[in-house]
Amino acid sequence: MNALVATNRNFKLAARLLGLDSKLERSLLIPFREIKVECTIPKDDGTLASFVGFRIQHDNARGPMKGGIRYHPEVDPDEVNALAQLMTWKTAVANIPYGGAKGGIGCSPGDLSVSELERLTRVFTQKIHDLIGIHADVPAPDMGTGPQTMAWILDEYSKFHGYSPAVVTGKPIDLGGSLGRDAATGRGVLFATEALLNEHGKTIAGQRFAIQGFGNVGSWAAQLITEKGGKIVAVSDVTGAIKNTNGIDIPSLLKHAKEHRGVKGFHGGDPIDPNSILVEDCDILIPAALGGVINRENANDIKAKFIVEAANHPTDPEADEILSKKGVVILPDIYANSGGVTVSYFEWVQNIQGFMWEEEKVNHELKTYMTKGFKDVKEMCQTHNCDLRMGAFTLGVNRVARATVLRGWEA
Ligand SMILES: NC(=O)C1=CN([C@@H]2O[C@H](COP(=O)(O)OP(=O)(O)OC[C@H]3O[C@@H](n4cnc5c(N)ncnc54)[C@H](O)[C@@H]3O)[C@@H](O)[C@H]2O)C=CC1
Ligand SMILES: O=C(O)CCC(=O)C(=O)O
Questions:
Q1: Which is it for strands 240-243 and 270-272: parallel, antiparallel or unpaired?
Q2: What are 177-210's pLDDT values in tens digits?
Q3: Distance separating alpha carbons of residues 72 and 347, to the nearest angstrom
Q4: 325 alpha carbon to ligand 1 midpoint, in Å?
Q5: Based on C-alpha coordinates, what's the Rg of the chain?
Q6: How far, in Å, CA of 392 to CA of 402, rounded?
Q7: pTM for the structure as a whole
Q8: What pLDDT was estimated at residue 409?
């Protein structure tokens, strides 16, 4: 199912549970602003290459819009729109003072040289610099981007507006990035999983995990879960997949993935079909790559008892229904992966204050936010007699709706 259709469907279900006024519902659904820009760069060989970049600013009722920038060949306006909307509900679930946005450029970052990526990022920033800003819209990394991408955006933006470290988060530490941001989404996934398991009388220790995606989020989640005694029995990325029922040696896999740019060829496990990762025998499945991967084609074959959505919108609504009937518990993306944007908020606060926190403080505050988030989601589940996805959606949508009404409608 198209990502936007799926996200709108979840939003509308939540709006119905909340009894939202239909005009307010419509206003919350329509994005604040949609930006589409042409980005042409000279390639290293002197030829020109043109790309299309997007920044969709979904809502700013609760504060500046916030969300990552993705470089991936499948970036399209509907997907970015869905991701921007999810950011609005996510920042509200986390209860941080932001709205939601998302950006992306349709490109294959692995096929571009570092200098081509730099030129592309600078051209994109030149096209959108007037529409982002510390109190307007604050980008961050997502798939295919990272601290270096944020450093280029910071530099290009600062040429127009003066030195502005708080215009992006997920920056290198040397440019005002926060300690702990790199690991934050994976660490948030760990805290979220602990909160969920605790409710079921379980701990991470001894649980068997399968993880799709071994980039920033998947690799940090794997490391931190292993440190807590969890067993990672299968991992996949775009290069391939491996399985080891005795538990994969994650530090060795990290070393291998760094050297070989992927998990393929790792000898500490058996190679498996990457498509089978989602239906591997495990207790907890963590999708940490693309959207829409859990759908009606594979939902019936999923063996995990819990799914923790580290990726954005990995599960189609049709799969939600099938999995719910099977008794699989899904911890939804807008709560489960909110650790990244929460530490982005801490980074922004530190930049504005001109003061740097110790990593211990960052991680401690993150745990506080993730624990509170779980409690708030559960309360909504009880109030509306619904599953965790609708608990999170009603929580986020309700907070945004209240802020919208309080700010009023005067033109
Ligand atoms: N980076 C962040 O702070 C946050 C990221 N997310 C979400 O987490 C997910 C992963 O993001 P990052 O780790 O940042 O990206 P990344 O670019 O660091 O890593 C992406 C990973 O997915 C793998 N992948 C790509 N296509 C695949 C396929 N077809 N099958 C299996 N694996 C595939 C890549 O090989 C790579 O290992 C995305 O959905 C993103 O939106 C959510 C919240 C915050
Ligand atoms: O850190 C941020 O501001 C945004 C992270 C993001 O894109 C996400 O949570 O999906």
A1: antiparallel
A2: 999 999 999 999 999 999 999 999 999 999 999 9
A3: 25
A4: 28
A5: 20
A6: 16
A7: 0.98
A8: 81
Mark whether 102 is an active-site residue.
Answer: yes
SS3 204: coil
In this structure, what token pair is assigned to residue 381?
């589940």
For the cut 90, the answer to whether the pLDDT of residue 411 exceeds it is no
Q: Which residues contact 254 (CB under 8 A, 6 or more apart)?
A: 219, 223
Dist. CA 140 → ligand 2 center (Å): 6
What is d(CA 104, CA 272) in angstroms, rounded to the nearest whole number? Answer: 31
The Cα–Cα gap between 66 and 58 comes to 9
Burial of 114 (0-12, 13-18, 19+ CB in 10 A): exposed
Q: 26 exposed, middle or buried (CB, 10 Å; 0-12, 13-18, 19+)?
A: exposed
The per-residue pLDDT for range 257-308, each reduced to its tens digit, is 999 999 999 999 999 999 999 999 999 999 999 999 999 999 999 999 999 9
Most ligand 2 atoms within 8 A of CB, residue of 66, 138, 313 to mutate: 66
Pocket of ligand 2 (CB under 6 A): 66-68, 90, 140, 142, 169-170, 312, 337, 340-341, 344
Name all residues whose Cβ lies below 6 A of ligand 1.
141-144, 185, 212-218, 236-238, 274, 288-290, 310-312, 337, 340
In 3D space, the residue among 388, 391, 346 whose CA is nearest the CA of residue 369 turns out to be: 346
409 C-beta neighbours (distance < 10 Å), count: 9
In the chain the first and final C-alpha atoms are separated, in Å, by 37
In what helix (H) or strand (E) does residue 8 lie, and over which residues does it extend?
helix 3-18
Q: What's the CA gap between 166 and 74, in Å, rounded?
A: 29
Alpha-carbon span 95 to 357, nearest angstrom: 20
CA distance 127 to 85: 22
Query: What is the Cα 149 distance to its own chain's centre?
Result: 17
Distance (angstroms) between ligand 1 centre and the Cα of 73 equals 13
Of all ligands present, the nearest one to the C-alpha of 273 is 1
d(CA 288, CA 290): 7
ipTM above 0.90, yes or no: yes
Nearest of 143, 144, 142, 140 to residue 153 by alpha carbon: 140
pLDDT digits (tens, 9 = 90+) for 339-379: 999 999 999 999 999 999 999 999 999 999 999 999 999 99
pLDDT at 1 exceeding the cut of 90: no
Residue with tokens 């909307």: 85
Query: What gap in Å lies between CA 250 and CA 383, rounded to an integer?
Result: 41
